[in-house]
């Protein structure tokens, strides 16, 4: 298995995990109220936009020639980091807080 293939498979697996977690946030959105609901809705929309950006860049890396994929990878990593930070913040704010309330 090539290094590129391993790299892409790892990112795809993490994206699937985050997609599941975003779905969980959306399910909790139905129970949220007031300002918390507005904030959670905005966060979910931001995460979905970042996720879409990562998916587009991931596709570019997949389609890049073997010798050019490293160049395209830089843009993907920037988008990845943005999504990761956004997700970690959302998880901390919405998922961990709800666990503490139980």
Description:
The protein contains 3 helices and no strands. Helix 1 (about 5-30) runs antiparallel to helix 2, helix 1 (about 5-30) runs parallel beside helix 3 (about 70-100) and helix 2 (about 35-65) packs antiparallel against helix 3 (about 70-100). The chain starts with a helix and ends with a helix. The protein has one domain. It is mainly alpha-helical and about 100 residues long. The chain has helices at about 5-30, 35-65, 70-100.
Number of alpha- plus pi-helical segments: 3
Alpha-carbon distance between the two ends:
45 Å
Q: What is the helix/strand order?
A: HHH
Quaternary structure classification: single chain
Fraction of residues in helix: over 70%
Number of beta-strand segments:
0
The assigned structural class equals mainly alpha
Uncertain stretches of 5 or more adjacent residues: none
Average pLDDT metric: 84
Percent of residues in beta strands: under 5%
Shape summary: elongated
Rg calc: 16 Å
Q: Which sheet architecture does the biggest sheet show?
A: none
Overall tally of structural domains: 1
């Amino acid at each position: 298995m090539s290094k590129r293939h391993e790299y892409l498979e790892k990112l795809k697996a993490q994206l699937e995990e985050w997609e599941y977690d975003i779905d969980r946030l959306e399910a909790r959105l139905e129970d949220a109220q007031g300002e918390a609901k507005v904030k959670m809705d905005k966060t979910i929309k931001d995460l979905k936009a970042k996720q879409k950006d990562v998916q587009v860049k991931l596709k570019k890396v997949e389609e890049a020639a073997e010798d050019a994929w490293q160049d395209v990878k830089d843009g993907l990593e920037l988008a990845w980091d943005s999504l990761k930070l956004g997700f970690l913040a959302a998880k901390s704010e919405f998922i961990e807080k709800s666990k503490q309330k139980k």
